[in-house]
Amino acid sequence: MVSTLSHIREIERVAMGAVSPRDAPVIQSWLRCLHDYKLDPTVAQEAYIVPEVKLREHREQAEELIRIGRSGLETLFNQIAEQNYVLLLSDARGVTVDFMGDPTFDNQLRRAGLYLGSEWSENRAGTCAVGACIVSGEPVIIHQDDHFDTSHIGLTCTAAPVFDTLGALTAVLDISQLRSPTAKASQQLALHLVASTTRRIELANLMTRTRNDWVLRLARSPEFLDVDPDAAIALDGSGRITGMTHGGFGALARSMNMHGVATRDFLGQPISEVFDMDVDDLPRFMRGRPNGERLLRARNGLVLFASAIAPAVSIRAPAVPEPRLPRALRDLSNGDTAMERVQARAAKLAARDIPILIQGETGSGKEFLARAIHDSCGNPGNFVAVNCAAIPEHLIESELFGYTPGAFTGASQKGKRGLIEEASGGTLFLDEIGDMPLALQSRLLRVLSENEVQPVGALKARAVRLRVLSASHRDLAELVKEGRFRQDLYYRLNAATLTLPSLRDRQDLGWLLDQLLRRIEKENGQTYRIDKAARAALLSHDWPGNLRELSNALRVAAALAEGDLIDLDCLPEHLFAEPAAQDDDELRRALSDCGNNVSALARKLGVNRSTIHRRLKRLN
Ligand SMILES: Nc1ncnc2c1ncn2[C@@H]1O[C@H](COP(=O)(O)OP(=O)(O)OP(=O)(O)O)[C@@H](O)[C@H]1O
């Protein structure tokens, strides 16, 4: 093994610009350690294990990934345990959230940092496989004195990234040995094993998350098509790519000569842009067909084998077929549990004439959902949205109910059909219903009970047939208690409630961001890219104005973009503002009241754990 001193001298020579025979990823990482993280090669630092409480938080956040990845990890561990490898699954911040190793060596492994809770981010540990993999997004071997810190130069570590279906790096799988042969080539098999395990974890994750989409599996050879494909793509009902196994598809894209194209750029594209097929061809690729018929030609000519799996809702439960979500409701989310529940309930309610109250913070998409329910219910009439807070109080009555010619001073000579009548045969959407004056609440109640409307000044009522959806960001039950909202109207409007999650609690924020950007691209007739830092800033903001705020921020960013690149400079400054100090103190106190248990606090405040973690992170 090399001496500590000669290792330090080598790093110093590289720092001076000397040419080195080491692999490029190693040299790039050494330079980052020196220049970006200002690490000193002469200062050795033992491996860092995060405190128990922190580890619990990291594990809680990675809970689903650990569950999905477990069987792949166990299979891999069984293959490598004989050679005294240990296996580490780290999160995107480099903290080991799952670990498998031989308990006989527990003490040595813990000291070396090959243990649950060890943090292998590059800025803390210097060049290491997990850290270099997080930065580059590529599989990597960091063998013995490739490590920057002399404390780690005995180890050999091989890591590969795990991406979520939208291309964000969510975890790194690493296998390491305390002692290994000197030749780095001895780790090539390890590299192959971790890369194929991450490919399988990504596939399992895609299958779990895209139950409402088609999945197209791709393989270079027919034997592996159904058992261990090279990559998989999820497609929505119109044939657009909604997700993929990024590691596997990246490798396929390279063999299709698509070098330098980020796999994320394929999201939202019609499948016909990449392959010689259309959405209607998908059933042709389903299992049971001879492999010869399941050939798929890429646009560049490469021929692959493809196997299609229809949306799982109709496949997995043939006995009680779940209706596929109507198109308009299907596109509201992608992988957010709370939204999936809202969508499923909305689809069932849309089919019946049941009044629905939609609750949610401002900008969380209440009107968007109401419109989707209207579009799904098949009523031929209009969707008429009335914002009860925006119409001046003295006009609400005439706007809603209409009036007869000359009904009051200033009224039009021709009279006016009210919005309620406009909506007859369709949907009346009463937004901010909590702001409707009490007197009008009684008249509205009569319309709903008797299915007729009496315009101002009219002697006779006219029949109407309405579906009523209403929304409020205020707690209507509370307004009823305070006597500011009629209880009977509340029950009439609120046969069922749908509550939209706020944006900061959504698990599919990255997907929403891409959706909104696609919409802006269409409006502007131009495509955009968001760089890593800007994307991270967008993903970590709290979004008090929810989807409206995000959509506006992206519109401004697109306008400010140099060419097609959206970077930090294009984002509104308030995105980087810190929360008020008073809020921070309150949060600390609330956490301490809950015995420093994040889950308990999240339950108490009615938000996701990730929201609390994000705020705590900002508090440091
Ligand atoms: N699921 C979605 N996908 C894409 N865009 C959405 C989605 N939901 C809402 N939006 C967009 O977000 C913005 C705000 O949505 P919307 O007006 O429906 O919110 P709201 O909750 O009704 O707001 P408010 O409380 O102010 O009335 C709109 O521009 C809408 O197009």
Automatic annotation (TrEMBL):
SMART domains membership: AAA
Keyword Nucleotide-binding: yes
Coiled-coil ranges (or none): none
Domain called Sigma-54 factor interaction: residue spans: 332-559
InterPro entries named in the record: AAA+_ATPase (IPR003593), AAA_lid_NorR (IPR058031), GAF (IPR003018), GAF-like_dom_sf (IPR029016), Homeodomain-like_sf (IPR009057), HTH_Fis (IPR002197), P-loop_NTPase (IPR027417), Sigma_54_int (IPR002078)
UniProt KW Glycosyltransferase keyword: no
Keywords: Activator, ATP-binding, DNA-binding, Nucleotide-binding, Transcription, Transcription regulation, Two-component regulatory system
Protein name per the record: Sigma-54-dependent Fis family transcriptional regulator
Organism of derivation: Shinella lacus
